[in-house]
């Protein structure tokens, strides 16, 4: 195959239809089948880029030496001009193989051939500025309520209006379309020229980050971190020695809270930028010191970064039946991350979601116990054995050994042998884990209150990240408490930047937001929590309306519709 041939979108579609993993990078068409199982970030990170121009994502997540090796996978070049993104098969994209005539003609199509083709154009729900309605005929009652959360609709409108006549699928579609319309009003349009301008400006911003040396780690800052970690650990041991078990638990929880920030840095290769060294740091901190799998975290976190807040694909918001941050969960969802696992909308979800704003903090207080389970499920699964290929063969056994050592030291040596009574043991375990609640709240804070709407494949990487992510405003002296997680918008746009440089990048990002007219969500910690609780409450109210719809239909004898 001529590696310099021009491959048209139709040809690329035909290759994807045959099962090839085709990704666009700069002007190159890459075939990544041979790299799919070896990718250290997991194969899902690649599958979500199939058919798309992934230049910005690849540049953001990889160092220069890695980028130089990308050309080895080139099978051709794309036509001049911007690439129109296709929907990846993992997200439901359907592709057609090329006919013999198309293959002989080089796959070239004229404008009339591509008109209306779903893969090469934006979906119907792309822009309401043109005057084309984004609502189906069942949504007439909601058109006048654009921008108003459905939770604010009166019960009368449900019992006697359009909502009361909706099936669950219609109701869910209506609410989701209202969310889409709201975002299309608040954010720059998906017009190709507008999004291309955003892409150009983002790449200029990225180059400014490189030119200022903001990818370089300041190791002296980690010296300060080590003093704090060591101090907390020593205080834990001293309190334990003097049998102050509750106080000892507080210090141990503080140690876990602080040191996990460095595991996060290592997971993104933001410390040494070397795979083996940063992976070893991550395994030591996450698995050995904290009992959590860094491999599980990287596997889910990489997908979270690429397809942020998408209910079907982002594992960080797939928490049914405890929580639902999107009405899309009302119709039951198949998770691409959890290998087709179905998050069913059932009676338990119908009971818990309406009260989720009240159960949120209590569940966050004990959330770490769930992470222990997920960690072991990951290291015992095929997903762990296939993560990273031969380069990372040692990570899985190292994780198993690290977590086993953690439970021996924490569970047996500390809790069982060093604490004399069951009451003290239970209190020690609970307090040490409840101290971690701010960390779990912080993890959710930047996303759970933000949009979960899907605007189509034409949205730029930068705009999607800023639309689905929020930064937390805090004074510089408090940065140690948040550990860099307060700069999630900055981090999502530049995930390899060491956290001690994120505040400087934020200054550059504010100018970028002003130039592109993309709203930059920046709130204080309290206001951010109010936003999250407000979103949880809004979705909870939507569930109540849904239940009323179902009861209304049942009373009318339309049982089969729900």
Tell me what the structure shows.
This protein is mainly alpha-helical. The protein has three domains: 9-120, Flavocytochrome B2, Chain A, domain 1 (Roll), CATH 3.10.120.10; 137-186 and 525-561, no CATH class; 217-454, no CATH class. 53% of the residues lie in helices and 4% in strands. The strands form three sheets. A three-stranded antiparallel sheet has the order 1-2-3. The protein has a two-stranded antiparallel sheet with strand order 4-5. Strands 6-7 form a two-stranded parallel sheet. α12 (245-267) runs parallel beside α20 and α13 runs parallel beside α19 (395-416). The radius of gyration is 25 Å and the shape is globular. GO terms for molecular function: metal ion binding; oxidoreductase activity, acting on paired donors, with oxidation of a pair of donors resulting in the reduction of molecular oxygen to two molecules of water.
Give the SSE map.
Elements: H1 9-17, E1 22-25, E2 28-31, H2 43-47, H3 55-61, H4 64-69, E3 74-77, H5 100-104, H6 111-114, H7 140-143, H8 155-160, H9 168-186, H10 192-211, H11 219-241, H12 245-267, H13 275-289, H14 294-306, E4 333-334, E5 342-343, H15 347-352, H16 356-365, H17 367-379, H18 382-385, H19 395-416, H20 422-434, H21 437-445, H22 461-468, E6 471-473, H23 479-482, H24 488-493, H25 502-516, E7 522-524, H26 525-555
Parallel strand pairs: 6-7
Antiparallel strand pairs: 1-2, 2-3, 4-5
